[in-house]
């Protein structure tokens, strides 16, 4: 089901000395707050959609409610899931749920629902998003891995040098290059503005663990050059 978010941005134009980097940096400052607002609107719309389908069961058949409303049955000592997929809306929690995301902290109003079958109260949105109770952070595994790589010296080297390359792509360039070869000849640093080394643990056969060591250089033209 398609939804649309309209964004209005107001800005002042000043006549004077300004370069492209200054404009880009100012826009970069808006990125995370803007993404948080967009994320909030998407989650609100998703919450409304889920609650509507679970409460209006005469309109939406079981197929349209598949995968929604999963919750632990009230009073079940073994923690088994309830088979009920119909709810009553019970307003919102008094305090918003604070969730840490890659864009920053998000305070989200959480809708409460009551199961018709067992009487349990839960959040259909958190259940559908697979956010466990008391969790305070979204877990995007792929992004976590990329951020771990970026937070090494790659980020410190790139900041301030205006190298036009994807941050997450640097690691891919390195591991995808011919780094398994050992270069015996000396490497000329004449055309390089920076050199860095990195080591990454890798799995080997029979449960052994190895280490992938690599060296990259950043040319004066801002290109990434695998060295070995």
In short:
This protein has 228 residues and is α+β, with helices and mostly antiparallel strands. It has helices at residues 20-55, 124-128, 141-150, 153-158, 167-175; strands at 87-92, 97-101, 104-108, 111-115, 121-122, 192-203, 209-219, 224-226.
Q: Into which percentage range does the β-strand content fall?
A: 15-25%
Order of helix and strand elements from N to C terminus: HEEEEEHHHHEEE
Q: How many beta strands in the DSSP annotation?
A: 8
Strand order of the largest sheet: 1-4-5
The number of helical segments is 5
Question: How many structural domains does the protein architecture include?
Answer: 2
Q: Mean pLDDT, nearest integer?
A: 74
Extract low-pLDDT stretches: 152-158, 160-165
Query: What structural class do helix, strand and pairing data support?
Result: alpha+beta
Q: Percent of residues in helical segments?
A: 25-40%
Shape: flat
Give the oligomeric state of the chains in this entry, treating copies of one chain as homo and distinct chains as hetero: single chain
Task: Give the terminus-to-terminus CA distance.
Answer: 49 Å
Biggest sheet statistics: 3 strands, antiparallel
Radius of gyration equals 25 Å
């Amino acid at each position: 089901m398609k939804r649309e978010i309209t964004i209005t941005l107001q800005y002042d134009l000043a006549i004077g000395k300004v370069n492209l980097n200054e404009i880009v940096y100012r826009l970069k400052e808006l990125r995370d707050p803007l993404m948080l607002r967009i994320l909030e609107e998407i989650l609100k719309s998703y919450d409304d959609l889920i609650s509507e389908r679970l409460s209006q069961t005469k309109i939406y058949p079981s197929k349209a409610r598949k995968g929604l409303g999963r919750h632990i049955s009230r009073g079940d000592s073994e923690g088994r899931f309830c088979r009920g997929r119909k709810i009553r809306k019970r307003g919102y929690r008094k305090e918003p749920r604070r969730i840490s995301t890659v864009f920053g902290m998000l305070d989200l109003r959480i809708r409460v629902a009551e199961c018709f079958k067992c009487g349990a109260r839960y959040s259909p949105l958190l259940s559908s998003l697979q956010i466990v109770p008391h969790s305070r952070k979204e877990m995007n595994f792929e992004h976590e891995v990329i951020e771990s790589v970026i937070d090494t010296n790659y980020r410190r080297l790139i900041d301030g040098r205006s190298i036009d390359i994807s941050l997450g792509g640097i690691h891919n360039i390195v591991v995808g290059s011919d780094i398994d070869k050992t270069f015996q000849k000396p490497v000329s640093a004449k055309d390089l503005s920076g050199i860095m080394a990195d080591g990454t643990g890798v799995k080997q056969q029979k449960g052994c663990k190895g280490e992938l060591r690599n060296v990259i250089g950043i040319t004066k033209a801002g290109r990434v050059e695998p060295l070995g």
